[in-house]
């Protein structure tokens, strides 16, 4: 496996960063999770834009241009001869000293691209739907660490994941500081009610997911009314369909939340329609490359 590290494509065992890297010491950096489908990097422009927005927000200047960053992602896929892949793009503040002051970093950010085979939830979960549970850990509040920043500090989500796993569930439903439904640990949440689609607004502790936006756009094209609206758990429990969206998970139906059945506890018809239409989109909407 070849990994892009600061301008070079190196073997996996040579891809090493300093123990003084502030990404390692403090989670001081940003990242993106991206997917390639059959030699097409899905929504790559959108992922690069979001990476640069996260970096701008934490005052991490990236020396590569957006165009160069796209080139680096494509070069890594080509070097690994991958048609389909999950890509992790990481930019950390780079090497500094043991103090958290970012000025101590010498000004060379660390840029890493890892492209690997994709890992999915088992197929059965996509066909039958998954069960999720609300966890005690709430999503970061925007005034403290805005969930729009895809920072290397993912402890908030990891704590929630641990709580779900401890209870025997694969995924956690996270609430915001007001008790409204925010999102899951690495996925956005949608519900369907009376054939209309609802998802929490991005201002409420919810990442503006690229899959989320793609699903909203697909729904609008299909003339399904969409709403970015605050949701309570009561509305989720009583919805007629529920599903999660994310780059890794794509669209996965949810059939049980906190032990409550969602309608007939089967993936719903709008969910299945959106899964089909989303799959079509992954074949066309992105940046193509050849091996
Ligand atoms: N919410 C959060 C908190 C995320 O981290 C999403 C929603 C979905 O966004 P996109 O843009 O992918 O539709 C994410 C992104 C994993 C994993 O291992 C997933 C993400 C990030 C890191 C790891 O499943 N998801």
What would your notes on this structure say?
The chain is an alpha+beta fold. The protein folds into two domains: 2-116, Aminotransferase class 4, branched-chain amino acid transferase, N-terminal domain (D-amino Acid Aminotransferase, Chain A, domain 1, 2-Layer Sandwich), CATH 3.30.470; 123-281, Alpha-Beta Barrel (D-amino Acid Aminotransferase, Chain A, domain 2), CATH 3.20.10. The chain has helices at 22-26, 44-57, 66-79, 123-128, 155-166, 210-221, 233-237, 269-281, and strands at 2-5, 8-11, 29-37, 40-42, 85-92, 110-116, 130-134, 171-175, 181-184, 188-193, 196-199, 226-228, 241-246, 250-257, 260-261, 286-288. Strands 7, 8, 9, 10, 11, 12, 13, 14 and 15 form a nine-stranded mixed β-sheet that branches. The radius of gyration is 19 Å and the shape is globular. The two termini are 15 Å apart. The model has no long low-confidence stretch (mean pLDDT 97). Bound molecules: 3-[O-phosphonopyridoxyl]--amino-benzoic acid (PXG). 3-[O-phosphonopyridoxyl]--amino-benzoic acid binds at residues 33, 157, 183, 186-188, 207, 209-212, 245-248.
Give the class from helix and strand content and strand pairing: alpha+beta
Largest sheet: 9 strands, mixed
Low-confidence stretches: none
Radius of gyration: 19 Å
Helix proportion range: 25-40%
**Which molecules are bound besides the chains?**
3-[O-phosphonopyridoxyl]--amino-benzoic acid
The number of distinct structural domains comes to 2
Strand content: 25-35%
Distance between the termini: 15 Å
The CATH class designation of the largest domain is: Alpha Beta
How many E strands? 16
Name the CATH architecture of the largest domain: Alpha-Beta Barrel
- Estimate the global geometry from the Cα principal axes: globular
Integer average pLDDT: 97
Number of helices: 8
């Amino acid at each position: 496996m070849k990994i892009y590290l600061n301008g070079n494509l190196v073997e996996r065992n040579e891809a090493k960063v300093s123990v003084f890297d502030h990404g390692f010491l403090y989670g001081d950096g940003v990242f993106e999770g991206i997917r390639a489908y059959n030699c097409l990097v899905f929504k790559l422009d959108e992922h690069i834009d979001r990476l640069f927005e996260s970096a701008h927000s934490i005052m991490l200047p990236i020396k590569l241009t957006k165009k160069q960053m796209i080139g680096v992602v494509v070069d890594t896929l080509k070097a690994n001869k991958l048609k389909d892949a999950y890509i992790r793009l990481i930019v950390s503040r780079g090497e500094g000293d043991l103090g958290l002051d970012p000025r101590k970093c010498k000004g060379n950010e660390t840029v890493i691209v890892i492209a690997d085979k994709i890992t999915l939830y088992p197929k059965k979960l996509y066909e039958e739907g998954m069960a999720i549970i609300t966890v005690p850990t709430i999503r970061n509040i925007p005034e403290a660490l805005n969930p729009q920043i895809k920072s290397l500090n993912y402890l908030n989500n990891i704590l929630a994941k641990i709580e779900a796993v401890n209870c025997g569930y694969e995924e956690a439903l996270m609430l915001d500081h007001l008790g409204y439904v925010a999102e899951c640990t690495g996925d956005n949440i949608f519900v369907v009610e009376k054939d209309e689609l609802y998802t929490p607004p991005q201002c409420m502790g919810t990442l503006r997911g690229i899959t989320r936006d793609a699903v909203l756009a697909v729904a609008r094209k299909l003339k399904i009314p969409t709403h970015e609206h605050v949701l309570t758990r009561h509305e989720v429990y009583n919805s007629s369909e529920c599903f999660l969206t994310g780059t890794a998970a794509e669209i996965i139906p949810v059939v049980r939340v906190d032990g409550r059945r969602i309608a007939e506890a089967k993936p719903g018809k709008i969910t299945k329609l959106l899964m089909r239409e989303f799959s079509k989109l992954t074949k066309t909407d992105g940046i193509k490359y050849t091996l």
